Amino acid sequence: MKKSLQNCIKSTFITLAISLIATLWIISLFEITIKLLSGMTVSNVIMAIGYRLLTDLGSVLLIAILLYPLYFIFGYFEKTIAQMAIHVIFSLLVIVQFAMAKYNLSTLVNFSVDLFGFSFKDMFSNVNVIDSPSIFYFIPFMFFPIFFLLIEKFLFKLSIK
């Protein structure tokens, strides 16, 4: 019984981590595609894509290694709470990743550069001048977390078969 529970917890967590990797890769490809379509210069497209995919993979692996013990402990007692917590955390990571990509596309500067150089008030005013919020501004913020959950559901169905 315990072995079956452990395998189920591991497979669900791995499915969630792979879904997060795929979603972050799609966001990175989306960002590079928007840069290319808008006429921004990307010095080496293949290297930029490879770098983004590699950093997303490394980030998710690090996050998964850090969160798995908590997921396993909570999953041992109540599996649904553990799954819900990881779904929420991973969905928030997707939203944060897309927000940073959107900020980079709006200001043409990485968020970390502005974080250390400006106050939050200055960053907020920079984004408001460049991008005015509208309904179309917020649609991708809803789309990518839903897309993450759809990938997870698809991979989970594949793992059951």
Main attributes?
161 residues; mainly alpha; 6 helices; 88% helix; 0% strand
How much β-strand is present in the residues? under 5%
Coarse morphology: globular
Query: Segments where pLDDT lies below 50 for 5+ residues?
Result: none
The radius of gyration computed from the alpha-carbon positions, rounded to a whole number of angstroms, is 18 Å
By DSSP (H or I, 4+ residues per run), the number of helices equals 6
Portion in helices:
over 70%
Elements, N to C (H/E): HHHHHH
Largest sheet: none
Structural class: mainly alpha
What do the pLDDT scores average to?
A: 76
- Taking the alpha carbons of the first and last residues, their distance comes to 21 Å
Strands, count? 0
Structure description:
- This protein is mostly helical.
- Helix content is 88%, strand content 0%.
- It has 6 helices and no strands.
- The protein has helices at 2-37, 45-77, 79-107, 111-117, 120-130, 135-160.
- Helix 3 packs across helix 6.
- It starts with a helix and ends with a helix.
- 14% of the residues are buried.
- The mean pLDDT is 76.
Summarize the structure.
The chain is mostly helical and 161 residues long. The protein contains six helices and no strands. Helix 1 runs parallel beside helix 3 (79-107).
Question: Topology of this protein?
Answer:
Elements: H1 2-37, H2 45-77, H3 79-107, H4 111-117, H5 120-130, H6 135-160
Helix pairs in contact: 1-2, 1-3, 1-6, 2-3, 3-6
